[in-house]
Structure formats: C-alpha cells, structure tokens
Design brief:
Layout: E1 3-13, H1 16-26, E2 29-34, E3 37-41, E4 47-52, E5 68-75, H2 78-88, E6 95-96, E7 102-105, E8 111-116, E9 155-163, H3 166-176, E10 180-186, E11 189-193, E12 203-207, E13 214-221, H4 225-237, E14 242-248, E15 255-259, E16 266-271, E17 283-286, H5 289-292, E18 295-296
Parallel strand pairs: 1-4, 5-8, 9-12, 10-17, 13-16
Antiparallel strand pairs: 1-5, 2-3, 3-4, 6-7, 7-8, 9-13, 10-11, 11-12, 14-15, 14-18, 15-16
Length: 314
C-alpha cells in the first residue's frame, strides 16, 4: 500500500465567504471557487475543499460540531487502491467511485477517501543558509530576504485528530493501512507516517472525550523557517489571530506557527520536518511543554534601537 499522504481535507462550514477570505489570505490558490465553495490549493495541488455545511454533495458530518467531513489520501497507483479495497472490504463497506477512488470509514467513524494522488512534483529550491565552517549556499551578492519575497504553502503536510481511543485509532492505521509510528507523546498520542512518505508524520492523534472528536489542526509545509516567519507575519498583519508560535517542535524538529480559523480547527505553517526510514526507533516522552517544543517565540510589533520596545514601561 503506497499511501503518500493527504491530498485534500474537505470541510462543511458555516460561512463560506469567511473561509474563502481566510484560505486565500493563508496563501492558497482558489480553483473554481464560487459562493458555494471550492478548492484552495497549495503549490503542488494538494489543499482544502470547503462547502456550506448544508451542501448535499458533502459526506455526512461527524456526530460532533467539528466541521471536517472527509480526509482524502493520495496513493501512487491504481494497484494500491485495489490492495486497500481488498483489505478494508473484509469487515466494512468500501465504495468504488466512477473515477476509481474508494471511500470508507475508519474505526472512529471518520470519512476517508483514497485516490491516485493529484500531487504535482515540485522543483523548487529550499531555503538557503550561510554558516561558518560550511560552504556558502547563497552566491556572493545573493540576499536572503527581501520585502516581497514569496512565502506560499508548498504542500499539505499533516492532519491532527481528536479521538477518544488512541489504541483503536493507531491499530487501524498501522495494522490495516501500513502506517508507522515514529514517536509517541504519552498522554496525548502517536505520530504516524505512511510507508510511502518519509516525513516524520502526516497524522497525529490526541486523546479527548467523544464529544470533541474531529480535526484539531492541519498543516502546510513551507520552504524553510524564514518563509514560515514571513507568511505568519503577513497573516497577522491581515488581522488573523496567532494561536501558538512561532517555535520549533522537538518530535519532528519542524518549525511551527498555528492560527485560529473559521473552519473550526487550527491551521499551521510548518517547515524543515525530519525524515525517517524503517530503521528509525520511535521515541516516547510525556506530553507537556518541554516535550512539545525546543523553543517558543511570540509575535510582536517590529522595533529598532533608539527607544523602548513597544509596550515597555517607562
């Protein structure tokens, strides 16, 4: 089963116009978007689909107030869909659609869809750095930052789900779909990756009561920590509310910056995530502030020497 990761996340929302404004400001490209909703894509074609919650074409809602309707995963080839259908068809209904994709529910009732991936291969440079003791990555006179520098989400990175039973959730994705646990935050849950993706995680579970079940946050890979900082700063200047960050996680090593959203979950810019293969041995640490991040910063107004920082007491 060559599962790559999430192609799309589909939401049924209260306010399509507010979500359209938010997702466009986030840096996603509207594709055939109308007042009824549509697709908002990253540079590689993955992204978010929103429609009004009453839209009859949407998958059914969760029994909670969460707006997530379906997770759409990409696989490498049609043969992978056949393998998934054969495995999951042993104990649940699997629906084969006219385009060859398949739909079913996981053991917590989340709606899943698997399709041959729509991801476009990216050919873009990573963020370049210059450091003593290493060859310079930027040529002489090549500057590292400028006011109008691009900082757009490159791909849909991962999704984090609230689930009432971590063991059931992890067993389904590992035993039935071949995901691998990379690390575990005890008291919260495991980080997982599908075998065809070497990112530290594309999925993470957090244990919560049943009434909270749904999407806690979703994330987008950026080209590096500078792009993350630039995109986040621009987003704050547009009036959107920072929730957590910027900072850098320990497990996964990825830089992060989370924001509140009108989609009923948090959105995250991330950058520079660890890569793993099957020789990796999962770590475990108790959930808490120390395990969750190595550094944490806070957005503030720009300042320059010559006076007290904004908000300082005289």
């Amino acid at each position: 089963m060559n599962i790559i990761g999430p192609d799309y996340l589909i939401f049924g929302v209260d306010d399509v116009a507010a979500c359209t404004e938010y997702l466009t400001a986030w840096g996603l490209k509207p594709v055939n978007v109308t007042e009824s909703g549509g697709l908002f894509e990253t540079l590689d074609g993955t992204g978010i689909i929103v429609r009004h919650k009453a839209d009859p074409t949407l998958p059914p809602p969760l029994p909670t107030s969460n707006m997530l309707r379906q997770q759409v995963y990409g696989v490498r080839a049609a043969e992978d869909l056949d393998a998934i259908e054969a495995e999951l068809g042993r104990d649940r209904r699997v629906t084969r659609l006219s385009d060859g994709s398949i739909e079913f529910k996981d053991d917590h009732g989340f709606e899943l869809k698997f399709q041959v991936t729509i991801r476009r291969e990216l050919d873009m440079p990573a963020e370049k750095i210059n450091a003593p003791g290493a060859p310079a990555q930027r040529r002489p006179n090549e500057i590292g930052v400028w006011e109008e520098m691009p900082a757009l989400p490159r791909t849909l990175s991962h999704v984090v789900l609230f689930v009432p039973d971590i063991e059931i959730a992890a067993r389904f994705y590992c035993d039935r779909l071949g995901f691998v646990i990379t690390d575990v935050l005890t008291g919260a849950g495991p980080f997982l990756r599908p075998r065809a993706n070497d990112d530290h995680h594309t999925l993470f579970f957090i244990r919560t009561p049943e009434y909270m079940k749904g999407c806690e946050h979703l994330a987008f890979h950026m080209g590096g920590p500078t792009e993350l900082m630039v995109a986040g700063t621009r987003f704050v200047k547009k009036g959107y509310q920072s929730f957590w960050g910027p900072g850098r996680h320990k497990f996964g090593s990825n830089w992060f910056w989370y924001f509140n959203s009108p989609l009923g979950c948090h959105f995250e810019y991330d950058a520079d995530m660890d890569k793993h293969d099957d020789t990796w041995v999962a770590r475990e640490a108790p959930m808490g502030a120390e395990a969750s991040q190595i550094v944490l910063f806070e957005m503030r107004e720009k300042w320059a020497p010559g006076g007290p920082p904004p908000g300082a007491k005289h």
